[in-house]
Structure formats: C-alpha cells, structure tokens
C-alpha cells in the first residue's frame, strides 16, 4: 500500500507550497465595480487603463453599437478578454466567434484579430495583456491592413 502525504509537497525551492506566497500575490488590484467604470465615446471605442505593471496591462473598453477595432495584433503580448455586458464579435485568422457576458476570448501573441460590436446595444469588455503592451492606451495596438476576403 502506498502512503498518502499529509503535508504539501515541497517544490524545487525546498519550501512546502502552503508556506509560499501564491504566484502573483504581489499583484494587488483593488476591487472594482466595472459597471461604475462604464464609459462610452460616440467617436470610437472608449479605452480605460485600470492597471499597468511590469507583468501586465489591464483595461476596460466601452463599445457603442457598430464600433470596431482595426485588424491588429499585440506584438509579444497575449490577451485575455472577458465580455462584461453586451455581445462582441471577434475575428481571428479567418474564424469568427460571437461572445456574450462572462464569455472569455484568449488571443495568443502575434495572432491577427479584430473585435466589433455588431449588436444594437452597448458592450463592455475587460482585457488583460501579458507581458504589458508598449505604446500606452492611446495607441495600444500595432495595426495591420485588413486582410482581403
């Protein structure tokens, strides 16, 4: 019969896992009410930076009906996007997917994609980019020409 350990296994640091801080424990993002951060701009997507660090960028985007991003990539950054409200259509490398509230889209680094709000109502998305993007909120993407159909 094989014994079952009763204490957490040590990793290669020699410290039991329960005695170590979890990865990212030094990343403290205060609790935020995303509904209170809703902001929209009829001239274009409303991008707000919530957090910036050496590890990641966190933004929230307000989309009026009909607004869209250009076809772009994020360089070396990967992204995770969560739809907070409304519906967003995402296109990447010829595939199209419609996402609703609480649905998640993961975009690997270098993947060309675009997002748009095809619905009649506003949409809000929450984005995390790691490593952080260069260029800041005013120019968060390296833009690419829209691919021919």
Automatic annotation (TrEMBL):
Domain Cupin type-2: 62-129
Keyword set, alphabetical order: Dioxygenase, Oxidoreductase
InterPro entries for this protein: Cupin_2, RmlC-like_jellyroll, RmlC_Cupin_sf
Biased composition (Low complexity): 1-10
Keyword Oxidoreductase belongs to the record: yes
Entry's Gene Ontology molecular function annotations: dioxygenase activity
Region of interest called Disordered, as start-end residue ranges on this chain: 1-26
One Pfam family this sequence matches: Cupin_2
Entry annotated with the keyword Oxidoreductase: yes
Name assigned to this protein: Cysteine dioxygenase type I
Native source organism of the sequence: Kitasatospora viridis
Lineage: Bacteria, Bacillati, Actinomycetota, Actinomycetes, Kitasatosporales
């Amino acid at each position: 019969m094989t014994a079952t350990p009763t204490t957490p296994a040590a990793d290669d640091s020699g410290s039991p896992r329960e005695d170590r801080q979890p990865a990212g424990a030094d990343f403290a993002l205060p609790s935020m009410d995303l509904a209170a951060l809703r902001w929209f701009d009829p001239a274009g997507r409303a991008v707000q930076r919530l957090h910036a660090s050496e590890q990641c960028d966190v933004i929230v985007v307000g989309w009026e009906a009909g607004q869209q991003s250009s076809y772009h990539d994020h360089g070396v950054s990967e992204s995770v996007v969560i739809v907070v409200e409304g519906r967003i259509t995402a296109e990447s490398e010829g595939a199209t997917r419609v996402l609703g509230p609480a649905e998640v889209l993961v975009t690997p680094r270098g993947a060309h994609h675009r997002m748009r709000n095809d619905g009649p109502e506003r949409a809000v998305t929450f984005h995390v980019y790691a490593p952080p993007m260069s260029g800041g909120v005013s120019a968060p993407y390296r833009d690419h020409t829209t691919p021919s159909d």
